[in-house]
C-alpha cells in the first residue's frame, strides 16, 4: 500500500485588512465585543475586481507547487474545497485547471464547509494510497465578504468571517517518517439548519421567490448560525475526533508536536488545548489575524506554522475541523 504526504504548502490572503474598529464604523459593535467572543482582531476582505475564490486558490497553488519542487504538468488531480464558489456551477476546480494551464486532469469540488480541507485531504490520501495518482493539488479557498450582512442585524455572523486561500500538494511518500497515518470523517445532518444558508434551494426560497417578493427583511439568503449550540457541539466533536485519530494509531496527546485546528473561534481552540494538556507551542492559531476562512483556515494556518519553523519534517501533526452540516474530521500525519 502506498503512503501519501504533504509535499508543498502555500497560501494567499487579500491585501485589504479590515480591523474590528473598521467594522465598528458601519455596524453596532466594538473591538472589545468581537475580541471577547471570538479572539479575532482583524480579517482580510477580497479586493473587488482582483480577488475571487478561484484566483486566490490559484495564487496559493502556485506557491505550493513551487515549494513541492514539481512541474505543474506533474499534477494528476485537483480537489477544491469551498462553500463560496465563483459560480453556482461549474465549481472552481475546473477553473483552477484552466487558469493554471494544467493538462485535462480531473477536478473534484468538495462542499463540506469548515471541514472541507480535512475531507479533501482524506480523499487525496486515498487516491495516493490506491496508486491512482502521484501528485494531487488540494485547495481550500473562501470569499465570504461579499455575502455577509454588514449591518447590525447580521453582526453576530459577519464579524467572524474573512477571505483567503491555502493549498497543498499531496504526493506519494517514499519516507516512512513522512506520511499521512489516518483520516477520520463524520457528519450529523440532524443539526443542518443550525449553521446554514437556506436560500436559494431546498424548495423554500428560490432566486425567483426572492426577486418576486423583493422583501428587504428577507433573511433566507443570509448565513444563519445558532452560535451557542454550534460552540457546544464543536468542543465535543473536536475532542472526539482527535481522540479517535490518536487511538487509531496507538498515540496519545503527549505525542502531538502540532495541532492545527480549524480557525472557527479562538475560545474553541483554547478549550481543546486545555483539555488535551497542550502547550502554546503545540497549537497553532491565527484567527486573530484572518478571522474564520472556513475551508481555507487549516491550510493557511498549517502553511504559516511551517514557514515559522513550528512544523518540521517528521513531526506528528494533527489537523481537526468542525462545521456546518454538521461535519467534522481529523487528519493524523507525520509531516
* Top-tier CATH class of the largest domain: Alpha Beta
* Biggest sheet strand line-up: 1-7-6-4-5
Helix content: 25-40%
Largest β-sheet summary: 5 strands, mixed
The class by helix and strand makeup works out as: alpha/beta
Describe this structure in words.
The chain is an alpha/beta fold and 335 residues long. It folds into two domains: 4-172, Peroxisomal Thiolase, Chain A, domain 1, CATH 3.40.47.10; 179-334, Peroxisomal Thiolase, Chain A, domain 1 (3-Layer(aba) Sandwich). It has eleven helices and 13 strands. It has a five-stranded mixed β-sheet with strand order 1-7-6-4-5, sandwiched between helices. Strands 8-13-12-11 form a four-stranded mixed β-sheet, with helices on both faces. It has a two-stranded antiparallel ribbon with strand order 2-3. β12 and β13 (327-334) form a beta hairpin. α3 packs across α4. The longest helix is centred in the C-terminal third of the chain and has 22 residues, at 227-248. The two termini are 19 Å apart.
Helices and strands in order, then pairings?
Layout: E1 4-12, E2 16-19, H1 20-24, H2 31-38, E3 42-45, H3 53-68, E4 77-81, H4 92-99, E5 106-110, H5 116-130, E6 135-142, H6 155-158, E7 164-172, E8 179-187, E9 195-196, H7 207-213, E10 224-225, H8 227-248, E11 258-261, H9 266-276, H10 287-290, H11 297-307, E12 316-323, E13 327-334
Descriptive terms for the model:
11 helices, Peroxisomal Thiolase, Chain A, domain 1, alpha/beta, 2 domains
